[in-house]
Known about the structure:
Layout: H1 7-31, H2 45-48, H3 53-64, H4 67-70, E1 72-73, E2 76-77, H5 93-102, H6 116-127, H7 133-141
Antiparallel strand pairs: 1-2
Helix pairs in contact: 3-6, 5-6
This protein binds heme C (HEC).
Amino acid sequence: xxxxxxxxxxxxxxxxxxxxxxxxxxxLGKRSPWSPNFDAPPLTAxxxxxxxxxVVEGARLFHDKxxxxxxxxxxxxxxxxxxxxKVADRITRAEMIIRISNGGHNMPAFAGSLRPSELAExxxxxxxxxxxxxxxxxxxxxx
Length: 143
Ligand code: HEC
């Protein structure tokens, strides 16, 4: 004799499958490269790693101006743009200024919304983002 499957069992299976599908897509969406993170909390003092005034101010601006929504710093932030945890090893201060002012593919231009002093502070902060601690120390000090 064949066991007949109760009809509400199929129904439960469909509900479970739907929840799993939506849940896994949601998790993927949260982690995916195109996903900005609008809830990124400000960077912690441990991540900033210095009490140098302009670097700390730059780190604060990096959050307040929304940079952190799109960029990761030491695994904090969003993944819409490149991870900037070691950006100072990759590009120069001048290249940072050009990128931040003019924006890029999927990055807005900030020339109109940052004061020159704020741009300088952001670059001071980004210049400390290096895989090489000695580089970070000297760049942070030399303003
Ligand atoms: C809407 C998302 C978004 C926001 C907001 C944003 N960026 Fe970007 N950023 C990007 C993307 C995408 C790129 C890559 C652009 C390209 O390659 O053309 C990028 C590139 C960069 C780069 C160059 C990185 C490299 O390795 O070449 C720097 C530096 C940078 N952003 C800094 C900032 C700063 C500072 C802010 C805030 C003032 C900011 N970004 C805000 C998305 C964003």
